[in-house]
Amino acid sequence: MTKYNLECLHCGATYEDDFYRLKCDNDHKPSLLRTVYTNKKLTVHENQTGVFKFMDFLPVSRVLQNKSAPVTYKSEKLNKFLGLQNLYIIFNGYWPEKKAMLYTASFKDLEAPPVLARIPEDNTNTLVVASAGNTGRAFANVCSQNNIPLVLVIPESGIEEIWSPQPFNDSVKLILASGRSDYLDAITLASKITEFDGFFPEGGAANVARRDGMATTVLDAGHHIGQIPDHYFQAVGSGTGGIAAWESALRLAEDGSYGKNRMRLHLAQNYPFTPMSDAWKNRERNLPILDENESKEKIRQIASHVLSNRKPPYSVVGGVYDTLSASNGLMYSVKNREAEEAMELFEQYEGCDLHPASGVALGALRQAVKSQQVGKDDIIVLNATGGGERRFRRDFHLHYLQPFSRLTDEEINSQDATKKIESILNLIYP
Ligand SMILES: [Zn+2]
């Protein structure tokens, strides 16, 4: 009996995993695949390290050494301050007193290990990952520790994000999308690199290992609380975390021991870059057509630069729109000022610093409390997707990954991009 199969959310076709598959073979509109595990019971393997304690619900046949796992706890002071009874925090970051040991201080640490463990050990090709910052840091760290070849592409604005408490190993190569590039330009460049022999894409939201890695946050919350939460709050750039949270709640429902609650998703974007919030307000399946310059200007204004994907998996079957529909979800637009206030509140009441994205999520929760979208007694989980970085920077000396090369947004989108990329790859891998 196989541990899992992959199921197309549009046509229902099922596939045995070849460990690289990102989409359905049938000719239809874009759709995500979902992992369907044969064993529906959640077993938490406390003897495994990090995220692999949820290995039964990860599409992997091996484990990597890794300490990163989400930590759920019940809030006392913030709970009281907000007038709530049952606020739980899923903390993803560095907070030794809570046993939260994510060495990149971000929940992207939960994605990288399963994605890498899904790839067969005898693979000889090089993984290519595009990131706005946090994801890149996570992949660079895990690949470096495990000597796995990686080409990482990020917009130059995110270069300060690629750090590690240990020196980086040679297996990790950084290429920058420079000039006026943003995350989408980095995705375009990464995609062009994967057209060369010997390279393959990580896949982002389409990679089931990435989603199931992020989904461990809700598995952890369900396991800790003993039931499926009523409400789930998270800030989103691509929305992949929101999709993963929903899939996780479905798995908990299938297990049968956690109730049959339909967990309501509350996803937040950082004003003024709010394409998904804007579309969902009107229940539009398609995102507004975004003017590139206008979007880049808006992205420059947001406090949380990781929340900046111009082409998120919103309309795709099984994507953010479908997930919000299924969960009767809500979306929020949170201003920088609200996010900053929320970060201060969290630090004051809970005692740890947060990433701006987590501030956006808490800002959304405060809006929901005010507008009574959540009840006082409801079981609410707040996914603090990153935090404790200030403390981490005090406790460790950080090493920064140096770029191997860079291409401007004009070069990336030009006719002779392929030639330029080829010469860079020839220099990296002579
Ligand atoms: Zn299909």
Structure description:
- With 430 residues, this protein is α/β, with parallel strands linked by helices.
- 34% of the residues lie in helices and 19% in strands.
- The protein contains 15 helices and 18 strands.
- The protein has helices at 77-81, 112-118, 134-146, 183-193, 208-214, 216-225, 240-255, 275-281, 292-301, 320-327, 336-350, 356-370, 389-395, 409-412, 417-428; strands at residues 4-8, 14-15, 33-37, 71-74, 86-91, 94-95, 100-101, 126-130, 150-155, 163-164, 172-178, 199-201, 231-235, 264-270, 330-334, 379-384, 399-400, 403-408.
- The strands form 5 sheets. The chain has a 6-stranded mixed β-sheet with strand order 4-5-16-13-14-15, sandwiched between helices. A 5-stranded parallel β-sheet has the order 12-8-9-11-18, sandwiched between helices. The protein has a 3-stranded antiparallel β-sheet with strand order 2-1-3, with no helix packed on it.
- Helix 6 (216-225) packs across helix 7 (240-255), helix 7 crosses helix 10 and helix 11 packs across helix 12.
- The longest helix is centred in the middle third of the chain and has 16 residues, at 240-255.
- The mean pLDDT is 96.
- Zinc ion is lined by residues 8, 10-11, 13, 24, 26, 28, 31.
Helix and strand layout, with pairings?
Elements: E1 4-8, E2 14-15, E3 33-37, E4 71-74, H1 77-81, E5 86-91, E6 94-95, E7 100-101, H2 112-118, E8 126-130, H3 134-146, E9 150-155, E10 163-164, E11 172-178, H4 183-193, E12 199-201, H5 208-214, H6 216-225, E13 231-235, H7 240-255, E14 264-270, H8 275-281, H9 292-301, H10 320-327, E15 330-334, H11 336-350, H12 356-370, E16 379-384, H13 389-395, E17 399-400, E18 403-408, H14 409-412, H15 417-428
Parallel strand pairs: 5-16, 8-9, 8-12, 9-11, 11-18, 13-14, 13-16, 14-15
Antiparallel strand pairs: 1-2, 1-3, 4-5, 6-7, 10-17
